[in-house]
Amino acid sequence: MKLNVFHRTRYNYATPVSGSYNEAHLQPTSCDGQVCHSFLLRVLPATRLSHYSDFYNNVVHFFEVPEPHDFLNVESTSTVTTGDERLDEGKGVAPLVQLPRLIEWERCYDYLQRSPFVSVEPDVWRLAMDATVGQTDVWQASLAIMRFIHTHFAYVPLSTNVNTHMSEVLELRRGVCQDFAHVMLGMCRTLKIPARYVSGYLYNGPADQLLGSQASHAWCEVFLPGFGWRGLDPTNNQQPNEHYITIGVGRDYADIVPLKGHYRGTQERTMTVDVKVTLAE
Fold first, then answer.
1. 2-82+257-279 — its CATH code?
2. pTM of the model
3. pLDDT digit string (tens) for 3-43?
4. CATH class of 96-255
């Protein structure tokens, strides 16, 4: 499927600010069956852009606006061809008890630890055990965790924010796609299943009723011996397909924030975000 993506973030400041330094994770990747054909980033006030690849091989754009300004507008447009690499959900992959000796530690170590938004405390382990009762296979256990979160947590827009830790989500039992991804990461990691956070977009076609398509979307990938990284979306209780566009991966949201930075000046500001994903003609 060939898709166009438009993403705009705008900040309006109550009084002019200066010394604004920013990083953007907005460029879709070209890997695992996905191809980014074009990408354009526009920033106003106009400034020079540079980019680099981070530790997790995501493309990061960097820019600064040193002079005083009362707004910041960041727009990205991209065209991407997506693929569908879903795995048979009835398939057995590897016994959970054998996982520690089957995984590739250099690829998976970071995705087995706690991270800024993800906890691996005993209460998370107990929840993971409850969700996977009777499961002995890595893939089947991962699917069980996805289904458990989708069933027992309510999708409620604006019930959390980008700084909400998964421990709070466990208490609330509600949140949005970012929160559900963090909960799944923690539950998988306590069972020694390597799991990483995926940031991207979701195309909601005319006949679809997918949650999380109105803004940036988030889901998880688990590492399966012999099959590599495989995606699971607890928000929609499904494997990612051709409707999903990947921007990048990390331990959690903190590693792949769409736009972050700092500046000198007022804290009074408003932010608006517009995302549109459409079929390419």
1. 2.60.40.2250
2. 0.94
3. 999 999 999 999 999 999 999 999 999 988 899 999 999 99
4. alpha beta
